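Our preliminary data section would be incomplete without showing what the modeling component actually yields. Below, a chain of 470 amino acids is followed by its predicted structure, encoded as C-alpha coordinates that our downstream tools consume directly.
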Amino acid sequence: MADKQDPDDPKYDWLYSGRSPESDEGHQQSGDPEATQRLSPADPEATQQWTPPPDGFGGAPASEEATPPANADEHTQVLKVPPRQESESPRPAQPAGPTSFGGTYDAPPAGRDSQSQRSEPRFATAASPTSPPRQPPATRPSRPPRRPRRHRNWWLRGILGLILVWVLFLVAVPIWAFSQITNVDAEPSGSRPDDTPGTTYLLVGSDSREDLTEQERGDLGTGNAVGQRTDTIIVLQVPSGPGPNVLLSLPRDSYVDIPGKGQNKINAAYAFGGPELLVATVEQNTGLRIDDYIEVGFTGFVDVVDAVGGIRVCPTSPIDDPKAGNLKMDKGCQDVDGNTALQYSRSRAFGNGDITRAQHQREVIASVGQRVASWQTVVLPWRYFTINKAGAESLQMGEEVGPFDLARFAWAMAHSSGDDAKRCVIPIRSLGASTPAGSAVLWDEEAAQDLFGQIADDDTASIECTESGQ
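Predicted structure:
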Protein backbone atom coordinates (compact mmCIF):
# COMPACT_ATOMS: atom_id res chain seq x y z
CA MET A 1 0.00 0.00 0.00
CA ALA A 2 1.03 3.67 -0.52
CA ASP A 3 1.28 4.52 3.16
CA LYS A 4 3.95 1.90 3.52
CA GLN A 5 6.26 3.72 1.06
CA ASP A 6 9.05 6.13 1.89
CA PRO A 7 7.76 9.73 1.64
CA ASP A 8 11.28 11.10 1.10
CA ASP A 9 11.74 9.21 -2.16
CA PRO A 10 11.72 11.75 -5.04
CA LYS A 11 9.50 9.42 -7.00
CA TYR A 12 6.63 10.24 -4.69
CA ASP A 13 7.01 14.01 -4.65
CA TRP A 14 3.87 14.35 -6.70
CA LEU A 15 1.89 12.80 -3.87
CA TYR A 16 2.83 15.57 -1.48
CA SER A 17 3.26 18.59 -3.71
CA GLY A 18 0.21 18.25 -5.86
CA ARG A 19 2.26 17.57 -8.95
CA SER A 20 1.51 14.83 -11.31
CA PRO A 21 4.18 12.60 -12.62
CA GLU A 22 3.31 13.71 -16.15
CA SER A 23 3.93 17.36 -15.30
CA ASP A 24 7.27 16.55 -13.80
CA GLU A 25 8.28 14.69 -16.87
CA GLY A 26 7.13 17.50 -19.08
CA HIS A 27 8.96 19.98 -16.96
CA GLN A 28 12.11 18.01 -17.11
CA GLN A 29 11.78 17.44 -20.84
CA SER A 30 11.17 21.05 -21.69
CA GLY A 31 14.08 22.16 -19.73
CA ASP A 32 12.24 25.25 -18.70
CA PRO A 33 13.06 25.78 -15.02
CA GLU A 34 10.77 28.78 -14.86
CA ALA A 35 7.73 27.00 -16.13
CA THR A 36 5.08 27.18 -13.50
CA GLN A 37 1.98 26.05 -15.28
CA ARG A 38 0.77 23.82 -18.03
CA LEU A 39 -2.45 24.49 -19.87
CA SER A 40 -4.34 21.90 -21.64
CA PRO A 41 -5.42 23.39 -24.94
CA ALA A 42 -8.01 20.69 -25.33
CA ASP A 43 -10.03 21.91 -22.38
CA PRO A 44 -10.21 25.69 -22.03
CA GLU A 45 -12.30 25.40 -18.90
CA ALA A 46 -9.87 23.09 -17.12
CA THR A 47 -8.53 24.08 -13.79
CA GLN A 48 -5.04 25.40 -14.13
CA GLN A 49 -2.45 24.17 -11.75
CA TRP A 50 0.37 26.30 -10.56
CA THR A 51 3.55 24.44 -9.70
CA PRO A 52 6.35 26.08 -7.76
CA PRO A 53 9.90 25.81 -8.96
CA PRO A 54 11.71 22.69 -7.93
CA ASP A 55 13.88 24.42 -5.52
CA GLY A 56 10.87 25.77 -3.74
CA PHE A 57 9.97 22.30 -2.45
CA GLY A 58 12.91 21.96 -0.21
CA GLY A 59 15.51 24.56 -1.18
CA ALA A 60 13.67 27.83 -0.51
CA PRO A 61 13.98 29.32 2.90
CA ALA A 62 11.38 28.29 5.31
CA SER A 63 10.27 31.89 5.86
CA GLU A 64 9.68 32.70 2.20
CA GLU A 65 6.40 32.03 0.51
CA ALA A 66 6.04 31.28 -3.15
CA THR A 67 4.43 34.10 -5.13
CA PRO A 68 2.19 32.93 -7.89
CA PRO A 69 2.19 34.76 -11.20
CA ALA A 70 -0.27 37.51 -11.83
CA ASN A 71 -2.38 35.39 -14.08
CA ALA A 72 -2.72 32.61 -11.48
CA ASP A 73 -5.69 34.12 -9.67
CA GLU A 74 -7.90 31.37 -10.82
CA HIS A 75 -5.46 28.59 -10.43
CA THR A 76 -5.53 26.13 -7.63
CA GLN A 77 -2.67 26.87 -5.35
CA VAL A 78 -0.73 24.28 -3.43
CA LEU A 79 1.03 25.84 -0.50
CA LYS A 80 3.79 24.40 1.48
CA VAL A 81 3.21 23.83 5.16
CA PRO A 82 5.53 26.15 7.06
CA PRO A 83 7.92 24.47 9.37
CA ARG A 84 7.13 24.39 13.09
CA GLN A 85 8.74 27.21 14.98
CA GLU A 86 11.19 26.25 17.67
CA SER A 87 9.75 28.91 19.93
CA GLU A 88 6.55 26.99 20.16
CA SER A 89 6.34 24.77 23.16
CA PRO A 90 7.15 21.28 22.16
CA ARG A 91 4.34 18.83 22.23
CA PRO A 92 4.78 15.81 24.39
CA ALA A 93 6.61 13.05 22.71
CA GLN A 94 4.23 10.67 21.03
CA PRO A 95 5.09 7.46 19.37
CA ALA A 96 5.40 7.80 15.67
CA GLY A 97 2.29 6.69 13.89
CA PRO A 98 2.08 4.98 10.56
CA THR A 99 2.42 6.99 7.38
CA SER A 100 -0.50 7.62 5.08
CA PHE A 101 -1.61 9.98 2.38
CA GLY A 102 -0.69 13.49 3.38
CA GLY A 103 2.10 12.53 5.78
CA THR A 104 2.24 11.07 9.23
CA TYR A 105 -0.30 11.38 12.01
CA ASP A 106 0.01 11.21 15.72
CA ALA A 107 -1.29 8.29 17.67
CA PRO A 108 -4.42 8.97 19.74
CA PRO A 109 -3.92 9.79 23.40
CA ALA A 110 -3.42 6.86 25.71
CA GLY A 111 -6.50 7.77 27.72
CA ARG A 112 -8.70 7.07 24.75
CA ASP A 113 -7.62 3.45 24.56
CA SER A 114 -9.65 2.32 27.52
CA GLN A 115 -12.62 4.37 26.32
CA SER A 116 -12.41 2.91 22.86
CA GLN A 117 -12.11 -0.50 24.37
CA ARG A 118 -15.22 0.09 26.44
CA SER A 119 -17.08 1.30 23.37
CA GLU A 120 -16.30 -1.86 21.47
CA PRO A 121 -19.19 -4.25 21.22
CA ARG A 122 -19.03 -7.02 23.77
CA PHE A 123 -19.72 -10.09 21.80
CA ALA A 124 -17.70 -13.10 20.89
CA THR A 125 -15.83 -13.17 17.60
CA ALA A 126 -15.36 -16.22 15.55
CA ALA A 127 -12.08 -17.92 16.18
CA SER A 128 -9.73 -18.19 13.24
CA PRO A 129 -9.03 -21.64 11.88
CA THR A 130 -5.49 -21.39 13.17
CA SER A 131 -6.52 -20.39 16.68
CA PRO A 132 -5.88 -22.96 19.39
CA PRO A 133 -9.01 -24.66 20.72
CA ARG A 134 -10.63 -22.81 23.57
CA GLN A 135 -10.51 -24.55 26.89
CA PRO A 136 -13.73 -24.95 28.87
CA PRO A 137 -13.98 -22.86 32.03
CA ALA A 138 -12.57 -24.42 35.13
CA THR A 139 -15.17 -26.15 37.30
CA ARG A 140 -15.16 -27.67 40.72
CA PRO A 141 -13.76 -31.12 40.91
CA SER A 142 -16.74 -33.47 40.87
CA ARG A 143 -17.18 -35.99 43.60
CA PRO A 144 -16.14 -39.48 42.77
CA PRO A 145 -19.11 -41.76 42.09
CA ARG A 146 -20.40 -43.48 45.16
CA ARG A 147 -19.81 -47.08 45.47
CA PRO A 148 -22.98 -49.11 45.67
CA ARG A 149 -23.74 -49.88 49.27
CA ARG A 150 -23.42 -53.40 50.24
CA HIS A 151 -26.65 -54.81 51.53
CA ARG A 152 -25.22 -55.59 54.91
CA ASN A 153 -28.60 -55.05 56.63
CA TRP A 154 -30.63 -57.31 54.36
CA TRP A 155 -31.48 -59.53 57.31
CA LEU A 156 -32.84 -56.53 59.26
CA ARG A 157 -34.96 -55.47 56.31
CA GLY A 158 -36.25 -59.01 55.99
CA ILE A 159 -37.26 -59.10 59.64
CA LEU A 160 -39.04 -55.75 59.37
CA GLY A 161 -40.86 -56.98 56.28
CA LEU A 162 -42.00 -60.12 58.07
CA ILE A 163 -43.21 -58.08 61.03
CA LEU A 164 -45.22 -55.84 58.74
CA VAL A 165 -46.78 -58.81 56.97
CA TRP A 166 -47.54 -60.42 60.32
CA VAL A 167 -49.27 -57.31 61.66
CA LEU A 168 -51.39 -57.11 58.51
CA PHE A 169 -52.27 -60.79 58.97
CA LEU A 170 -53.29 -60.25 62.59
CA VAL A 171 -55.59 -57.40 61.57
CA ALA A 172 -57.03 -58.87 58.38
CA VAL A 173 -58.05 -62.28 59.78
CA PRO A 174 -60.41 -60.96 62.51
CA ILE A 175 -61.95 -58.52 60.04
CA TRP A 176 -62.62 -61.38 57.65
CA ALA A 177 -63.94 -63.59 60.46
CA PHE A 178 -66.27 -60.86 61.68
CA SER A 179 -67.79 -60.61 58.22
CA GLN A 180 -68.64 -64.35 58.37
CA ILE A 181 -70.61 -64.16 61.64
CA THR A 182 -74.39 -64.53 61.42
CA ASN A 183 -76.37 -61.59 62.75
CA VAL A 184 -79.73 -61.96 64.50
CA ASP A 185 -82.29 -59.47 65.72
CA ALA A 186 -81.92 -59.55 69.49
CA GLU A 187 -83.08 -56.05 70.44
CA PRO A 188 -86.54 -56.20 72.06
CA SER A 189 -89.22 -53.64 71.35
CA GLY A 190 -91.23 -51.77 73.95
CA SER A 191 -90.05 -50.41 77.27
CA ARG A 192 -86.61 -51.44 78.47
CA PRO A 193 -84.54 -50.80 81.62
CA ASP A 194 -82.23 -47.82 81.79
CA ASP A 195 -78.69 -48.20 80.54
CA THR A 196 -76.46 -50.19 82.87
CA PRO A 197 -72.98 -48.77 83.63
CA GLY A 198 -70.25 -50.68 81.89
CA THR A 199 -71.15 -53.32 79.32
CA THR A 200 -73.61 -56.14 79.87
CA TYR A 201 -73.37 -59.18 77.60
CA LEU A 202 -75.86 -62.04 77.39
CA LEU A 203 -74.01 -65.23 76.45
CA VAL A 204 -76.26 -68.05 75.28
CA GLY A 205 -75.40 -71.63 74.44
CA SER A 206 -77.97 -73.02 72.01
CA ASP A 207 -78.90 -76.70 72.18
CA SER A 208 -80.68 -76.69 68.84
CA ARG A 209 -80.16 -79.87 66.83
CA GLU A 210 -81.53 -78.54 63.57
CA ASP A 211 -78.12 -78.06 61.92
CA LEU A 212 -76.65 -81.37 63.12
CA THR A 213 -76.42 -84.50 60.99
CA GLU A 214 -77.32 -87.93 62.39
CA GLN A 215 -73.61 -88.73 62.72
CA GLU A 216 -72.97 -85.49 64.64
CA ARG A 217 -75.92 -86.07 66.94
CA GLY A 218 -74.57 -89.51 67.78
CA ASP A 219 -70.99 -88.30 68.32
CA LEU A 220 -72.08 -85.39 70.51
CA GLY A 221 -74.80 -87.34 72.36
CA THR A 222 -77.36 -84.58 71.82
CA GLY A 223 -80.33 -86.83 71.14
CA ASN A 224 -83.12 -85.95 68.74
CA ALA A 225 -84.96 -83.24 70.64
CA VAL A 226 -86.73 -80.77 68.33
CA GLY A 227 -87.09 -77.04 68.60
CA GLN A 228 -84.73 -74.32 69.79
CA ARG A 229 -83.71 -74.12 73.40
CA THR A 230 -80.93 -72.55 75.41
CA ASP A 231 -78.52 -74.89 77.13
CA THR A 232 -76.52 -72.07 78.79
CA ILE A 233 -77.55 -68.56 79.90
CA ILE A 234 -74.80 -66.37 81.38
CA VAL A 235 -74.77 -62.63 82.06
CA LEU A 236 -71.26 -61.20 81.71
CA GLN A 237 -70.88 -57.80 83.34
CA VAL A 238 -67.80 -55.70 82.49
CA PRO A 239 -67.88 -52.66 84.80
CA SER A 240 -66.69 -49.23 83.81
CA GLY A 241 -65.00 -48.82 87.19
CA PRO A 242 -62.13 -50.74 88.82
CA GLY A 243 -64.27 -53.65 89.96
CA PRO A 244 -63.87 -57.22 88.66
CA ASN A 245 -65.88 -58.80 85.87
CA VAL A 246 -68.88 -60.88 86.89
CA LEU A 247 -69.98 -64.15 85.30
CA LEU A 248 -73.56 -64.72 86.52
CA SER A 249 -75.23 -68.01 85.57
CA LEU A 250 -79.02 -68.17 85.21
CA PRO A 251 -80.11 -71.86 85.45
CA ARG A 252 -82.02 -72.91 82.36
CA ASP A 253 -84.89 -74.24 84.54
CA SER A 254 -85.35 -70.96 86.38
CA TYR A 255 -89.04 -70.25 86.78
CA VAL A 256 -89.64 -66.67 85.62
CA ASP A 257 -92.21 -64.44 83.96
CA ILE A 258 -91.89 -64.40 80.13
CA PRO A 259 -93.31 -61.20 78.54
CA GLY A 260 -96.58 -62.06 76.79
CA LYS A 261 -96.28 -65.77 77.65
CA GLY A 262 -96.82 -65.91 81.40
CA GLN A 263 -94.59 -67.82 83.79
CA ASN A 264 -92.43 -70.62 82.51
CA LYS A 265 -88.88 -71.92 82.49
CA ILE A 266 -86.53 -69.28 81.22
CA ASN A 267 -85.18 -71.40 78.37
CA ALA A 268 -88.70 -71.58 76.94
CA ALA A 269 -88.48 -67.89 76.05
CA TYR A 270 -85.96 -68.74 73.32
CA ALA A 271 -88.29 -71.41 71.95
CA PHE A 272 -91.24 -68.99 71.95
CA GLY A 273 -89.62 -65.91 70.45
CA GLY A 274 -85.93 -66.50 69.76
CA PRO A 275 -83.18 -64.15 70.89
CA GLU A 276 -85.43 -61.09 71.03
CA LEU A 277 -87.86 -62.60 73.54
CA LEU A 278 -85.05 -64.16 75.58
CA VAL A 279 -83.34 -60.75 75.95
CA ALA A 280 -86.65 -59.16 76.97
CA THR A 281 -87.20 -61.90 79.58
CA VAL A 282 -83.76 -61.43 81.14
CA GLU A 283 -84.14 -57.65 81.22
CA GLN A 284 -87.57 -57.81 82.83
CA ASN A 285 -86.51 -60.23 85.59
CA THR A 286 -83.09 -58.69 86.38
CA GLY A 287 -83.63 -54.98 85.73
CA LEU A 288 -80.35 -54.94 83.75
CA ARG A 289 -80.22 -53.62 80.19
CA ILE A 290 -78.49 -56.06 77.84
CA ASP A 291 -76.03 -54.32 75.54
CA ASP A 292 -74.78 -57.18 73.35
CA TYR A 293 -76.12 -60.62 72.53
CA ILE A 294 -73.69 -63.49 71.78
CA GLU A 295 -74.83 -67.04 70.91
CA VAL A 296 -72.68 -70.16 70.55
CA GLY A 297 -73.83 -73.37 68.87
CA PHE A 298 -72.95 -77.00 69.61
CA THR A 299 -70.60 -77.64 66.72
CA GLY A 300 -68.99 -74.23 66.98
CA PHE A 301 -68.15 -74.81 70.62
CA VAL A 302 -66.44 -78.08 69.78
CA ASP A 303 -64.47 -76.48 66.95
CA VAL A 304 -63.26 -73.64 69.16
CA VAL A 305 -61.99 -76.07 71.84
CA ASP A 306 -60.20 -78.15 69.23
CA ALA A 307 -58.75 -75.01 67.62
CA VAL A 308 -56.97 -74.08 70.86
CA GLY A 309 -55.61 -77.60 71.22
CA GLY A 310 -58.05 -78.75 73.92
CA ILE A 311 -58.59 -77.46 77.44
CA ARG A 312 -58.00 -78.61 81.02
CA VAL A 313 -60.97 -79.33 83.34
CA CYS A 314 -61.02 -80.50 86.93
CA PRO A 315 -64.17 -82.47 87.94
CA THR A 316 -64.60 -82.79 91.69
CA SER A 317 -66.13 -86.26 91.44
CA PRO A 318 -66.18 -89.14 88.94
CA ILE A 319 -68.69 -88.75 86.11
CA ASP A 320 -70.67 -91.54 84.40
CA ASP A 321 -73.54 -90.07 82.35
CA PRO A 322 -75.07 -92.11 79.53
CA LYS A 323 -77.36 -89.15 78.66
CA ALA A 324 -74.36 -86.92 77.89
CA GLY A 325 -72.85 -88.96 75.10
CA ASN A 326 -71.88 -91.75 77.48
CA LEU A 327 -69.48 -89.46 79.30
CA LYS A 328 -67.03 -91.14 81.66
CA MET A 329 -64.41 -89.10 83.52
CA ASP A 330 -62.28 -89.64 86.57
CA LYS A 331 -61.97 -87.16 89.41
CA GLY A 332 -59.20 -84.60 89.08
CA CYS A 333 -57.72 -82.29 86.45
CA GLN A 334 -57.30 -83.64 82.92
CA ASP A 335 -57.01 -82.45 79.32
CA VAL A 336 -60.05 -82.95 77.08
CA ASP A 337 -60.89 -82.33 73.43
CA GLY A 338 -63.90 -80.55 72.01
CA ASN A 339 -66.40 -83.43 72.20
CA THR A 340 -65.53 -84.28 75.80
CA ALA A 341 -65.61 -80.61 76.84
CA LEU A 342 -69.11 -80.24 75.36
CA GLN A 343 -70.42 -83.32 77.12
CA TYR A 344 -68.79 -82.22 80.36
CA SER A 345 -70.57 -78.84 80.22
CA ARG A 346 -73.94 -80.47 79.46
CA SER A 347 -73.93 -83.31 81.97
CA ARG A 348 -76.60 -83.21 84.73
CA ALA A 349 -75.62 -86.42 86.52
CA PHE A 350 -75.10 -84.67 89.83
CA GLY A 351 -77.05 -84.27 93.03
CA ASN A 352 -77.89 -80.60 92.50
CA GLY A 353 -78.54 -80.89 88.76
CA ASP A 354 -78.22 -77.54 86.98
CA ILE A 355 -76.05 -75.94 89.69
CA THR A 356 -73.08 -78.25 89.04
CA ARG A 357 -73.79 -78.05 85.35
CA ALA A 358 -73.55 -74.25 85.47
CA GLN A 359 -70.28 -74.50 87.36
CA HIS A 360 -68.85 -76.78 84.66
CA GLN A 361 -69.99 -74.37 81.94
CA ARG A 362 -68.23 -71.42 83.53
CA GLU A 363 -65.13 -73.56 84.01
CA VAL A 364 -65.07 -74.53 80.34
CA ILE A 365 -65.62 -70.93 79.17
CA ALA A 366 -62.81 -69.62 81.37
CA SER A 367 -60.44 -72.40 80.23
CA VAL A 368 -61.18 -71.67 76.56
CA GLY A 369 -60.53 -67.99 77.16
CA GLN A 370 -57.16 -68.75 78.73
CA ARG A 371 -56.04 -70.87 75.78
CA VAL A 372 -57.21 -68.33 73.22
CA ALA A 373 -55.27 -65.55 74.99
CA SER A 374 -51.99 -67.52 75.10
CA TRP A 375 -48.90 -66.42 73.16
CA GLN A 376 -49.17 -69.46 70.91
CA THR A 377 -52.34 -68.08 69.34
CA VAL A 378 -50.47 -65.02 68.11
CA VAL A 379 -47.25 -66.77 67.11
CA LEU A 380 -48.72 -69.79 65.30
CA PRO A 381 -50.51 -68.55 62.18
CA TRP A 382 -52.51 -71.74 61.56
CA ARG A 383 -53.82 -71.68 65.13
CA TYR A 384 -54.72 -68.00 64.90
CA PHE A 385 -56.60 -68.53 61.65
CA THR A 386 -58.37 -71.69 62.87
CA ILE A 387 -59.59 -70.02 66.06
CA ASN A 388 -60.99 -67.06 64.17
CA LYS A 389 -62.61 -69.31 61.59
CA ALA A 390 -64.17 -71.59 64.22
CA GLY A 391 -65.42 -68.64 66.23
CA ALA A 392 -67.01 -67.06 63.17
CA GLU A 393 -68.78 -70.30 62.28
CA SER A 394 -70.00 -70.93 65.82
CA LEU A 395 -71.26 -67.48 66.73
CA GLN A 396 -74.47 -65.60 66.17
CA MET A 397 -74.68 -62.10 67.52
CA GLY A 398 -77.05 -59.22 67.73
CA GLU A 399 -77.14 -56.71 64.94
CA GLU A 400 -75.98 -53.98 67.31
CA VAL A 401 -72.70 -55.80 68.10
CA GLY A 402 -69.72 -54.25 66.34
CA PRO A 403 -66.17 -55.55 65.88
CA PHE A 404 -64.87 -53.62 68.87
CA ASP A 405 -67.72 -54.89 71.04
CA LEU A 406 -66.86 -58.44 70.06
CA ALA A 407 -63.17 -57.83 70.76
CA ARG A 408 -63.99 -56.51 74.24
CA PHE A 409 -66.17 -59.58 74.86
CA ALA A 410 -63.33 -61.92 73.87
CA TRP A 411 -60.94 -60.01 76.11
CA ALA A 412 -63.36 -60.19 79.02
CA MET A 413 -63.87 -63.94 78.57
CA ALA A 414 -60.11 -64.46 78.44
CA HIS A 415 -59.76 -62.67 81.79
CA SER A 416 -62.64 -64.34 83.62
CA SER A 417 -60.76 -67.27 85.16
CA GLY A 418 -58.55 -65.59 87.77
CA ASP A 419 -58.95 -63.22 90.66
CA ASP A 420 -60.05 -60.44 88.31
CA ALA A 421 -63.49 -62.09 87.87
CA LYS A 422 -66.30 -63.34 90.07
CA ARG A 423 -68.20 -66.48 89.04
CA CYS A 424 -71.67 -66.60 90.49
CA VAL A 425 -74.98 -68.45 90.31
CA ILE A 426 -78.14 -66.46 90.91
CA PRO A 427 -79.19 -66.84 94.57
CA ILE A 428 -81.53 -69.86 94.74
CA ARG A 429 -84.34 -70.67 97.11
CA SER A 430 -85.27 -74.06 95.66
CA LEU A 431 -83.71 -76.40 93.11
CA GLY A 432 -86.71 -78.64 92.40
CA ALA A 433 -89.88 -76.70 93.10
CA SER A 434 -93.06 -78.08 91.64
CA THR A 435 -94.52 -75.68 89.09
CA PRO A 436 -97.06 -75.84 86.22
CA ALA A 437 -94.01 -76.14 83.95
CA GLY A 438 -92.63 -79.08 85.95
CA SER A 439 -89.70 -79.22 88.36
CA ALA A 440 -88.06 -75.80 88.30
CA VAL A 441 -85.55 -73.59 90.07
CA LEU A 442 -86.86 -70.74 92.17
CA TRP A 443 -84.73 -67.64 92.80
CA ASP A 444 -84.20 -65.99 96.15
CA GLU A 445 -85.86 -62.78 95.06
CA GLU A 446 -84.53 -60.52 97.81
CA ALA A 447 -80.89 -61.67 97.47
CA ALA A 448 -81.19 -61.67 93.69
CA GLN A 449 -82.43 -58.07 93.60
CA ASP A 450 -79.58 -56.94 95.84
CA LEU A 451 -77.14 -58.58 93.43
CA PHE A 452 -78.75 -56.90 90.41
CA GLY A 453 -78.68 -53.55 92.21
CA GLN A 454 -74.93 -53.78 92.84
CA ILE A 455 -74.33 -54.50 89.16
CA ALA A 456 -76.55 -51.58 88.15
CA ASP A 457 -74.56 -49.32 90.48
CA ASP A 458 -71.28 -50.47 88.83
CA ASP A 459 -70.17 -51.80 92.22
CA THR A 460 -69.04 -55.30 91.32
CA ALA A 461 -66.31 -55.24 93.97
CA SER A 462 -69.00 -55.41 96.72
CA ILE A 463 -70.77 -58.45 95.29
CA GLU A 464 -70.73 -61.53 97.47
CA CYS A 465 -71.85 -64.62 95.65
CA THR A 466 -71.21 -68.36 95.49
CA GLU A 467 -70.85 -70.82 92.68
CA SER A 468 -73.68 -72.90 94.08
CA GLY A 469 -76.14 -70.06 94.58
CA GLN A 470 -76.78 -71.10 98.16
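The chain has a mean pLDDT of 74. The radius of gyration is 64 Å. Preliminary results of this kind motivate Aim 1 of the renewal.
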